[in-house]
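Researcher: I need the complex structure. Ligand is alpha-D-glucopyranose. Inputs:
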Amino acid sequence: MSERTDVTVEPPWWKTAVVYQIYPRSFADSTADGVGDLQGIRAHLDHLEWLGVDAIWLSPFFTSPMADFGYDVADYCDVDPIFGTLADFDRLLADAHARGIKVLIDWVPNHSSDRHPWFVESRSSRDNPKRDWYIWRDGTPDQMPNNWSAAFGGKVWTWDEGTEQWYLHLFLPEQPDLNWRNPEVVAAMHDTLRFWLDRGVDGFRMDVIHGIVKREDLVDLPVDRHHSPDRFDEPAVHAHLRDIRTLIDGYPGDRTSVGEVYILSTGKVAEYYGQGDELHMAFNFPPLYAPWDAAAWRKRVDRVVEELDPRDAWPTWVLSNHDNPRHRSRYGSEARARAAAVLLLTLRGTPFLYAGEELGLEDAVIPKDREVDPAGRDICRAPIPWTPASDHGWGVDDPWLPWPPEPDVRNVESLRADETSILHLYRRILAARHASPALQAGTWAPLPSPPTVLAYSRVLGDDRRIVLVNFGDAPVSVSLESAAVVEVASDGAGEGAAFTGTLAADSAVILR
Ligand code: GLC
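Model: Output:
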Protein backbone atom coordinates (compact mmCIF):
# COMPACT_ATOMS: atom_id res chain seq x y z
CA MET A 1 0.00 0.00 0.00
CA SER A 2 2.61 2.56 1.09
CA GLU A 3 4.83 1.42 -1.77
CA ARG A 4 2.11 2.23 -4.31
CA THR A 5 1.71 5.69 -2.85
CA ASP A 6 5.48 6.21 -3.14
CA VAL A 7 5.40 5.35 -6.82
CA THR A 8 2.50 7.55 -7.77
CA VAL A 9 3.19 10.65 -5.66
CA GLU A 10 6.30 12.63 -6.51
CA PRO A 11 8.08 13.24 -3.17
CA PRO A 12 8.99 16.86 -2.29
CA TRP A 13 12.56 17.78 -3.23
CA TRP A 14 13.83 17.70 0.35
CA LYS A 15 13.06 13.99 0.69
CA THR A 16 15.27 12.99 -2.21
CA ALA A 17 17.94 15.66 -1.72
CA VAL A 18 21.46 15.34 -0.38
CA VAL A 19 22.20 18.43 1.72
CA TYR A 20 25.73 19.80 2.11
CA GLN A 21 26.51 21.92 5.18
CA ILE A 22 28.76 24.93 4.71
CA TYR A 23 30.36 26.68 7.67
CA PRO A 24 30.91 30.03 5.93
CA ARG A 25 34.05 31.06 7.87
CA SER A 26 35.80 27.89 6.76
CA PHE A 27 34.64 27.19 3.23
CA ALA A 28 36.25 29.66 0.82
CA ASP A 29 37.65 33.18 1.01
CA SER A 30 37.20 35.79 -1.73
CA THR A 31 38.93 38.68 0.08
CA ALA A 32 42.14 37.03 1.34
CA ASP A 33 41.41 38.11 4.92
CA GLY A 34 41.64 34.52 6.11
CA VAL A 35 37.90 34.21 6.83
CA GLY A 36 35.56 32.57 4.34
CA ASP A 37 32.66 34.59 2.91
CA LEU A 38 29.55 34.45 0.71
CA GLN A 39 31.41 35.38 -2.49
CA GLY A 40 33.84 32.59 -1.72
CA ILE A 41 30.97 30.13 -1.58
CA ARG A 42 29.54 31.51 -4.81
CA ALA A 43 32.90 31.10 -6.54
CA HIS A 44 32.98 27.41 -5.57
CA LEU A 45 29.50 26.34 -6.60
CA ASP A 46 31.21 24.46 -9.44
CA HIS A 47 32.62 22.03 -6.91
CA LEU A 48 29.18 21.38 -5.43
CA GLU A 49 27.54 20.93 -8.81
CA TRP A 50 30.33 18.58 -9.95
CA LEU A 51 29.98 16.62 -6.71
CA GLY A 52 26.22 16.34 -7.24
CA VAL A 53 24.70 17.80 -4.07
CA ASP A 54 21.10 19.01 -4.29
CA ALA A 55 21.06 21.61 -1.54
CA ILE A 56 23.34 23.58 0.74
CA TRP A 57 22.74 24.61 4.34
CA LEU A 58 24.65 27.73 5.34
CA SER A 59 25.58 28.09 9.00
CA PRO A 60 24.95 31.68 10.25
CA PHE A 61 26.31 34.57 8.18
CA PHE A 62 24.20 37.22 9.94
CA THR A 63 25.43 40.35 11.71
CA SER A 64 27.20 39.10 14.81
CA PRO A 65 29.88 40.03 17.35
CA MET A 66 31.03 36.39 16.83
CA ALA A 67 31.19 35.31 20.46
CA ASP A 68 29.87 31.97 19.13
CA PHE A 69 31.01 32.61 15.55
CA GLY A 70 27.64 33.71 14.27
CA TYR A 71 25.32 31.69 16.52
CA ASP A 72 25.03 34.98 18.44
CA VAL A 73 22.91 37.05 16.06
CA ALA A 74 22.76 40.85 16.36
CA ASP A 75 20.56 41.33 13.29
CA TYR A 76 18.52 38.42 11.91
CA CYS A 77 17.92 40.24 8.63
CA ASP A 78 21.37 41.33 7.53
CA VAL A 79 24.75 39.89 6.55
CA ASP A 80 27.81 40.44 8.71
CA PRO A 81 30.39 42.56 6.80
CA ILE A 82 32.98 39.83 7.32
CA PHE A 83 30.83 37.57 5.09
CA GLY A 84 29.68 40.25 2.61
CA THR A 85 26.38 42.00 2.01
CA LEU A 86 22.72 41.18 1.41
CA ALA A 87 23.39 41.73 -2.29
CA ASP A 88 26.11 39.05 -2.10
CA PHE A 89 23.58 36.71 -0.53
CA ASP A 90 21.05 37.41 -3.28
CA ARG A 91 23.69 36.67 -5.92
CA LEU A 92 24.70 33.44 -4.20
CA LEU A 93 21.06 32.36 -3.96
CA ALA A 94 20.40 33.18 -7.62
CA ASP A 95 23.53 31.35 -8.80
CA ALA A 96 22.78 28.31 -6.67
CA HIS A 97 19.22 28.19 -7.98
CA ALA A 98 20.46 28.55 -11.55
CA ARG A 99 22.45 25.36 -10.97
CA GLY A 100 19.48 23.57 -9.45
CA ILE A 101 20.93 23.79 -5.92
CA LYS A 102 18.49 24.69 -3.13
CA VAL A 103 19.61 26.90 -0.25
CA LEU A 104 18.77 26.38 3.43
CA ILE A 105 19.90 28.93 5.99
CA ASP A 106 20.39 28.70 9.72
CA TRP A 107 17.77 30.27 11.98
CA VAL A 108 18.73 30.87 15.61
CA PRO A 109 15.45 31.41 17.48
CA ASN A 110 16.44 30.38 21.01
CA HIS A 111 18.74 33.31 21.73
CA SER A 112 20.09 36.47 20.18
CA SER A 113 23.38 38.24 20.74
CA ASP A 114 23.62 40.46 23.82
CA ARG A 115 24.37 43.22 21.28
CA HIS A 116 21.09 42.73 19.44
CA PRO A 117 19.16 46.04 19.75
CA TRP A 118 16.32 44.04 21.35
CA PHE A 119 18.55 42.96 24.22
CA VAL A 120 20.26 46.33 24.49
CA GLU A 121 16.78 47.82 25.05
CA SER A 122 15.67 44.98 27.27
CA ARG A 123 18.58 45.42 29.63
CA SER A 124 18.34 49.24 29.64
CA SER A 125 15.68 49.36 32.38
CA ARG A 126 13.19 47.14 34.17
CA ASP A 127 10.27 48.99 32.61
CA ASN A 128 11.55 49.05 29.05
CA PRO A 129 8.86 47.72 26.67
CA LYS A 130 11.30 44.98 25.58
CA ARG A 131 12.21 43.93 29.13
CA ASP A 132 9.99 40.86 28.83
CA TRP A 133 11.49 39.85 25.45
CA TYR A 134 14.18 38.02 27.44
CA ILE A 135 14.05 35.96 30.61
CA TRP A 136 14.75 38.14 33.64
CA ARG A 137 14.47 36.99 37.24
CA ASP A 138 14.90 38.55 40.66
CA GLY A 139 17.67 37.53 43.01
CA THR A 140 20.73 38.93 44.66
CA PRO A 141 24.22 38.98 43.13
CA ASP A 142 25.13 35.93 45.21
CA GLN A 143 21.86 34.02 44.74
CA MET A 144 20.97 32.74 41.26
CA PRO A 145 17.33 31.97 40.43
CA ASN A 146 18.17 28.28 39.94
CA ASN A 147 21.09 25.87 39.63
CA TRP A 148 21.09 25.09 35.89
CA SER A 149 24.43 24.79 34.06
CA ALA A 150 25.07 26.39 30.68
CA ALA A 151 26.03 24.34 27.60
CA PHE A 152 29.63 25.57 27.39
CA GLY A 153 30.34 25.71 31.14
CA GLY A 154 29.34 28.07 33.92
CA LYS A 155 25.73 28.73 34.86
CA VAL A 156 22.75 29.85 32.78
CA TRP A 157 22.39 33.14 34.72
CA THR A 158 24.24 36.42 34.39
CA TRP A 159 23.69 39.30 36.83
CA ASP A 160 22.95 42.66 35.24
CA GLU A 161 24.52 45.36 37.40
CA GLY A 162 22.48 48.17 35.86
CA THR A 163 19.01 46.76 36.56
CA GLU A 164 19.91 44.34 39.33
CA GLN A 165 18.29 41.22 37.93
CA TRP A 166 19.53 37.97 36.41
CA TYR A 167 19.04 37.04 32.74
CA LEU A 168 18.98 33.48 31.44
CA HIS A 169 21.28 32.05 28.73
CA LEU A 170 21.46 28.34 27.92
CA PHE A 171 24.73 29.06 26.08
CA LEU A 172 27.19 31.95 26.55
CA PRO A 173 26.38 35.11 28.58
CA GLU A 174 26.65 36.83 25.16
CA GLN A 175 23.65 34.71 24.01
CA PRO A 176 20.61 35.73 26.13
CA ASP A 177 17.57 33.48 25.60
CA LEU A 178 14.54 35.07 23.96
CA ASN A 179 11.23 34.77 25.81
CA TRP A 180 8.99 32.80 23.45
CA ARG A 181 6.14 33.13 25.99
CA ASN A 182 5.87 36.77 24.89
CA PRO A 183 3.69 37.10 21.74
CA GLU A 184 5.71 40.11 20.52
CA VAL A 185 8.82 37.93 20.38
CA VAL A 186 6.92 35.30 18.44
CA ALA A 187 5.70 37.89 15.95
CA ALA A 188 9.17 39.42 15.55
CA MET A 189 10.77 36.02 14.99
CA HIS A 190 8.08 35.05 12.48
CA ASP A 191 8.96 38.24 10.62
CA THR A 192 12.59 37.10 10.37
CA LEU A 193 11.42 33.88 8.70
CA ARG A 194 9.29 35.85 6.25
CA PHE A 195 12.21 38.15 5.47
CA TRP A 196 14.28 35.23 4.13
CA LEU A 197 11.37 33.32 2.60
CA ASP A 198 10.47 36.47 0.66
CA ARG A 199 14.08 36.61 -0.57
CA GLY A 200 13.70 33.09 -1.89
CA VAL A 201 15.43 30.72 0.53
CA ASP A 202 14.25 27.12 0.34
CA GLY A 203 14.13 26.53 4.07
CA PHE A 204 15.79 26.68 7.45
CA ARG A 205 17.96 24.65 9.74
CA MET A 206 16.54 25.59 13.14
CA ASP A 207 19.06 25.94 15.94
CA VAL A 208 18.21 24.46 19.38
CA ILE A 209 14.56 24.41 18.36
CA HIS A 210 13.48 22.09 21.19
CA GLY A 211 14.74 24.64 23.73
CA ILE A 212 12.85 27.78 22.77
CA VAL A 213 10.35 27.54 25.65
CA LYS A 214 11.76 26.95 29.10
CA ARG A 215 9.73 25.25 31.84
CA GLU A 216 7.77 27.90 33.63
CA ASP A 217 8.82 27.01 37.19
CA LEU A 218 12.57 27.10 36.37
CA VAL A 219 12.92 24.57 39.17
CA ASP A 220 16.32 23.40 40.49
CA LEU A 221 17.47 20.15 38.88
CA PRO A 222 19.71 17.34 40.12
CA VAL A 223 23.24 17.89 38.79
CA ASP A 224 23.03 14.99 36.32
CA ARG A 225 19.93 16.60 34.72
CA HIS A 226 21.53 20.01 34.11
CA HIS A 227 21.88 19.42 30.38
CA SER A 228 18.70 17.38 30.06
CA PRO A 229 15.49 18.20 28.21
CA ASP A 230 13.85 18.57 31.65
CA ARG A 231 14.62 22.26 31.25
CA PHE A 232 12.60 22.76 28.06
CA ASP A 233 10.99 20.37 25.52
CA GLU A 234 7.66 21.91 26.62
CA PRO A 235 4.25 21.37 24.97
CA ALA A 236 4.38 25.08 24.06
CA VAL A 237 7.35 24.38 21.75
CA HIS A 238 5.14 22.07 19.71
CA ALA A 239 2.41 24.72 19.47
CA HIS A 240 5.02 27.19 18.16
CA LEU A 241 6.26 24.65 15.65
CA ARG A 242 2.74 24.17 14.29
CA ASP A 243 2.46 27.94 13.74
CA ILE A 244 5.90 28.02 12.10
CA ARG A 245 4.92 25.12 9.86
CA THR A 246 1.79 26.96 8.76
CA LEU A 247 3.89 30.05 8.02
CA ILE A 248 6.45 28.13 5.96
CA ASP A 249 3.90 26.00 4.11
CA GLY A 250 2.09 29.22 3.16
CA TYR A 251 4.92 29.88 0.69
CA PRO A 252 5.01 28.16 -2.70
CA GLY A 253 7.71 25.68 -3.72
CA ASP A 254 7.96 23.16 -0.90
CA ARG A 255 10.00 25.28 1.51
CA THR A 256 11.29 23.15 4.34
CA SER A 257 12.70 22.99 7.85
CA VAL A 258 15.14 20.75 9.66
CA GLY A 259 15.34 21.16 13.39
CA GLU A 260 18.35 20.71 15.58
CA VAL A 261 16.48 18.69 18.20
CA TYR A 262 19.44 18.01 20.42
CA ILE A 263 17.77 15.36 22.56
CA LEU A 264 19.54 12.02 22.41
CA SER A 265 16.34 10.00 22.19
CA THR A 266 14.94 9.07 18.79
CA GLY A 267 11.48 8.73 20.37
CA LYS A 268 11.64 12.35 21.54
CA VAL A 269 12.99 13.52 18.18
CA ALA A 270 10.02 11.84 16.47
CA GLU A 271 7.61 14.00 18.50
CA TYR A 272 8.98 17.10 16.77
CA TYR A 273 7.43 15.99 13.48
CA GLY A 274 4.01 16.27 15.17
CA GLN A 275 1.25 14.81 13.02
CA GLY A 276 3.07 15.98 9.91
CA ASP A 277 2.33 19.53 11.10
CA GLU A 278 5.54 20.51 12.94
CA LEU A 279 9.10 20.16 11.59
CA HIS A 280 9.48 18.78 8.07
CA MET A 281 12.63 17.04 9.29
CA ALA A 282 14.60 16.78 12.51
CA PHE A 283 18.19 15.82 13.13
CA ASN A 284 18.51 12.56 15.06
CA PHE A 285 21.91 12.54 16.77
CA PRO A 286 22.16 9.06 18.38
CA PRO A 287 23.63 7.56 15.15
CA LEU A 288 26.25 10.34 15.05
CA TYR A 289 27.41 9.19 18.47
CA ALA A 290 27.36 5.47 17.60
CA PRO A 291 30.76 3.76 17.35
CA TRP A 292 31.92 2.03 14.15
CA ASP A 293 30.14 -1.19 15.04
CA ALA A 294 27.49 -3.17 13.15
CA ALA A 295 25.38 -4.03 16.22
CA ALA A 296 25.37 -0.42 17.43
CA TRP A 297 24.30 0.83 14.01
CA ARG A 298 21.64 -1.85 13.60
CA LYS A 299 20.14 -0.66 16.89
CA ARG A 300 20.20 3.01 15.88
CA VAL A 301 18.60 2.27 12.49
CA ASP A 302 15.94 0.05 14.12
CA ARG A 303 15.02 2.88 16.49
CA VAL A 304 14.48 5.22 13.55
CA VAL A 305 12.25 2.67 11.80
CA GLU A 306 10.26 2.03 15.01
CA GLU A 307 9.82 5.67 16.02
CA LEU A 308 9.57 7.57 12.74
CA ASP A 309 7.80 5.22 10.33
CA PRO A 310 4.51 5.00 12.26
CA ARG A 311 4.32 8.81 12.14
CA ASP A 312 5.21 8.91 8.47
CA ALA A 313 8.11 11.12 9.59
CA TRP A 314 10.96 11.43 7.10
CA PRO A 315 14.35 10.51 8.66
CA THR A 316 17.63 12.41 8.40
CA TRP A 317 21.17 11.05 8.67
CA VAL A 318 24.31 12.93 9.61
CA LEU A 319 27.81 11.85 10.61
CA SER A 320 29.66 15.14 10.92
CA ASN A 321 28.90 18.81 11.52
CA HIS A 322 30.45 21.98 12.93
CA ASP A 323 29.89 20.88 16.55
CA ASN A 324 31.52 17.45 16.64
CA PRO A 325 34.80 15.75 15.79
CA ARG A 326 34.76 14.61 12.16
CA HIS A 327 33.71 10.98 11.60
CA ARG A 328 36.93 10.32 9.67
CA SER A 329 38.75 11.02 12.95
CA ARG A 330 36.22 9.27 15.18
CA TYR A 331 36.25 6.07 13.13
CA GLY A 332 40.01 6.09 12.72
CA SER A 333 40.72 5.36 9.04
CA GLU A 334 39.92 6.48 5.53
CA ALA A 335 38.64 2.99 4.70
CA ARG A 336 35.99 3.37 7.40
CA ALA A 337 35.14 6.93 6.33
CA ARG A 338 34.59 5.59 2.80
CA ALA A 339 32.35 2.75 3.98
CA ALA A 340 30.50 5.23 6.21
CA ALA A 341 29.80 7.42 3.17
CA VAL A 342 28.03 4.48 1.50
CA LEU A 343 26.00 3.92 4.67
CA LEU A 344 25.09 7.60 5.16
CA LEU A 345 23.99 8.03 1.56
CA THR A 346 21.94 4.85 1.19
CA LEU A 347 19.82 4.73 4.36
CA ARG A 348 16.19 5.79 3.98
CA GLY A 349 16.00 9.52 4.58
CA THR A 350 17.73 12.79 3.80
CA PRO A 351 21.52 12.73 4.30
CA PHE A 352 23.44 15.79 5.47
CA LEU A 353 27.11 16.05 4.46
CA TYR A 354 29.52 18.39 6.22
CA ALA A 355 31.94 20.28 3.96
CA GLY A 356 35.29 18.53 3.82
CA GLU A 357 34.05 15.02 4.53
CA GLU A 358 34.18 14.39 0.77
CA LEU A 359 37.94 15.04 1.05
CA GLY A 360 38.26 12.57 3.91
CA LEU A 361 39.45 15.41 6.14
CA GLU A 362 40.55 14.59 9.66
CA ASP A 363 40.16 16.99 12.55
CA ALA A 364 42.81 19.69 12.70
CA VAL A 365 45.39 19.90 15.44
CA ILE A 366 44.91 23.32 17.06
CA PRO A 367 47.78 24.66 19.15
CA LYS A 368 46.66 26.19 22.46
CA ASP A 369 47.46 29.72 21.32
CA ARG A 370 45.25 29.33 18.23
CA GLU A 371 42.14 28.07 20.04
CA VAL A 372 39.21 30.42 19.48
CA ASP A 373 35.98 28.50 20.16
CA PRO A 374 34.70 28.66 23.74
CA ALA A 375 33.55 25.04 23.45
CA GLY A 376 36.61 23.36 21.88
CA ARG A 377 35.06 22.82 18.42
CA ASP A 378 37.85 24.39 16.35
CA ILE A 379 39.15 20.97 15.28
CA CYS A 380 36.25 20.32 12.89
CA ARG A 381 36.12 23.90 11.59
CA ALA A 382 39.52 24.08 9.88
CA PRO A 383 39.48 25.81 6.46
CA ILE A 384 38.79 23.68 3.37
CA PRO A 385 41.97 23.29 1.27
CA TRP A 386 41.14 23.90 -2.40
CA THR A 387 44.59 23.56 -4.00
CA PRO A 388 48.01 22.08 -3.17
CA ALA A 389 49.64 25.58 -3.12
CA SER A 390 50.77 26.97 0.23
CA ASP A 391 47.66 29.19 0.51
CA HIS A 392 45.39 26.28 -0.55
CA GLY A 393 43.31 28.66 -2.63
CA TRP A 394 42.65 31.14 0.20
CA GLY A 395 45.04 33.94 -0.78
CA VAL A 396 46.66 33.70 2.66
CA ASP A 397 48.90 30.99 4.06
CA ASP A 398 47.54 31.28 7.56
CA PRO A 399 43.75 31.66 7.73
CA TRP A 400 41.63 32.05 10.89
CA LEU A 401 42.27 28.44 11.95
CA PRO A 402 45.18 26.16 11.03
CA TRP A 403 44.77 23.80 8.04
CA PRO A 404 43.50 20.27 8.57
CA PRO A 405 46.08 17.44 8.24
CA GLU A 406 47.71 16.73 4.84
CA PRO A 407 46.38 19.78 2.97
CA ASP A 408 49.04 19.29 0.27
CA VAL A 409 47.30 16.11 -0.88
CA ARG A 410 43.88 16.36 0.75
CA ASN A 411 42.61 19.30 -1.24
CA VAL A 412 39.91 19.55 -3.87
CA GLU A 413 42.26 20.02 -6.85
CA SER A 414 44.54 17.07 -6.03
CA LEU A 415 41.70 14.69 -5.18
CA ARG A 416 39.78 15.62 -8.31
CA ALA A 417 42.82 14.63 -10.35
CA ASP A 418 42.82 11.18 -8.71
CA GLU A 419 39.92 8.98 -9.76
CA THR A 420 40.60 6.55 -6.92
CA SER A 421 40.16 9.28 -4.28
CA ILE A 422 37.44 9.48 -1.63
CA LEU A 423 36.20 12.62 -3.41
CA HIS A 424 35.43 10.58 -6.54
CA LEU A 425 33.81 7.92 -4.36
CA TYR A 426 31.38 10.53 -2.95
CA ARG A 427 30.62 11.66 -6.50
CA ARG A 428 29.92 8.11 -7.65
CA ILE A 429 27.61 7.45 -4.70
CA LEU A 430 25.70 10.67 -5.34
CA ALA A 431 25.37 9.79 -9.02
CA ALA A 432 24.12 6.31 -8.09
CA ARG A 433 21.54 7.90 -5.77
CA HIS A 434 20.32 10.28 -8.44
CA ALA A 435 19.91 7.42 -10.89
CA SER A 436 17.98 5.22 -8.46
CA PRO A 437 14.44 5.97 -7.26
CA ALA A 438 14.91 3.10 -4.79
CA LEU A 439 17.93 4.77 -3.13
CA GLN A 440 16.18 8.13 -3.06
CA ALA A 441 12.75 7.22 -1.84
CA GLY A 442 12.35 3.46 -1.68
CA THR A 443 11.49 1.16 1.18
CA TRP A 444 14.23 -0.04 3.53
CA ALA A 445 14.40 -3.61 4.82
CA PRO A 446 17.15 -5.46 6.66
CA LEU A 447 18.64 -8.58 5.05
CA PRO A 448 20.20 -11.56 6.86
CA SER A 449 23.96 -11.07 7.21
CA PRO A 450 27.02 -12.06 9.26
CA PRO A 451 27.33 -10.20 12.59
CA THR A 452 29.87 -7.61 11.40
CA VAL A 453 27.77 -6.70 8.37
CA LEU A 454 24.78 -4.39 8.05
CA ALA A 455 22.82 -5.52 4.97
CA TYR A 456 19.65 -3.97 3.58
CA SER A 457 17.57 -3.59 0.50
CA ARG A 458 16.08 -0.43 -0.95
CA VAL A 459 13.13 -0.98 -3.27
CA LEU A 460 10.80 1.24 -5.25
CA GLY A 461 8.65 -0.38 -7.91
CA ASP A 462 11.01 -2.32 -10.18
CA ASP A 463 14.07 -0.48 -8.94
CA ARG A 464 16.07 -2.39 -6.33
CA ARG A 465 19.46 -2.00 -4.65
CA ILE A 466 21.23 -4.00 -1.98
CA VAL A 467 23.72 -2.35 0.37
CA LEU A 468 26.30 -4.26 2.40
CA VAL A 469 28.49 -2.53 4.99
CA ASN A 470 31.24 -4.51 6.70
CA PHE A 471 32.17 -2.86 10.02
CA GLY A 472 34.60 -5.69 10.79
CA ASP A 473 38.38 -5.57 10.48
CA ALA A 474 38.48 -8.84 8.51
CA PRO A 475 37.07 -9.80 5.11
CA VAL A 476 33.71 -11.58 5.30
CA SER A 477 31.58 -13.72 2.98
CA VAL A 478 28.00 -12.68 2.33
CA SER A 479 25.65 -14.93 0.42
CA LEU A 480 22.83 -13.33 -1.52
CA GLU A 481 19.64 -14.85 -2.87
CA SER A 482 20.52 -13.95 -6.42
CA ALA A 483 23.46 -12.68 -8.45
CA ALA A 484 24.21 -8.97 -8.25
CA VAL A 485 26.53 -6.45 -9.87
CA VAL A 486 28.68 -4.02 -7.88
CA GLU A 487 27.49 -0.51 -8.68
CA VAL A 488 29.71 1.31 -6.19
CA ALA A 489 32.40 -0.09 -3.89
CA SER A 490 33.86 2.03 -1.09
CA ASP A 491 37.37 0.79 -2.02
CA GLY A 492 36.60 1.02 -5.75
CA ALA A 493 37.17 -2.74 -6.21
CA GLY A 494 35.14 -4.65 -8.80
CA GLU A 495 32.73 -1.89 -9.80
CA GLY A 496 30.71 -2.98 -12.81
CA ALA A 497 31.54 -6.66 -12.21
CA ALA A 498 29.54 -9.42 -10.52
CA PHE A 499 29.71 -9.35 -6.71
CA THR A 500 32.20 -12.04 -5.66
CA GLY A 501 30.51 -12.75 -2.34
CA THR A 502 33.41 -11.34 -0.30
CA LEU A 503 33.47 -7.95 1.38
CA ALA A 504 36.85 -6.51 2.36
CA ALA A 505 37.45 -5.29 5.94
CA ASP A 506 35.88 -1.86 6.65
CA SER A 507 34.25 -1.67 3.25
CA ALA A 508 30.80 -1.26 1.74
CA VAL A 509 29.11 -1.88 -1.60
CA ILE A 510 25.97 -0.83 -3.41
CA LEU A 511 24.73 -3.77 -5.51
CA ARG A 512 22.10 -3.97 -8.17
C1 GLC B 1 23.71 24.81 18.19
C2 GLC B 1 24.77 25.05 17.15
C3 GLC B 1 26.05 25.39 17.86
C4 GLC B 1 25.83 26.64 18.68
C5 GLC B 1 24.66 26.47 19.64
C6 GLC B 1 24.23 27.78 20.19
O1 GLC B 1 23.98 23.69 18.97
O2 GLC B 1 24.90 23.96 16.31
O3 GLC B 1 27.11 25.58 16.96
O4 GLC B 1 26.99 26.93 19.41
O5 GLC B 1 23.54 25.93 18.98
O6 GLC B 1 23.64 28.55 19.19
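Model: Summary of the prediction. The pocket of alpha-D-glucopyranose is lined by residues 68, 71, 108, 171, 207-208, 260, 322-323 (CB under 6 Å).
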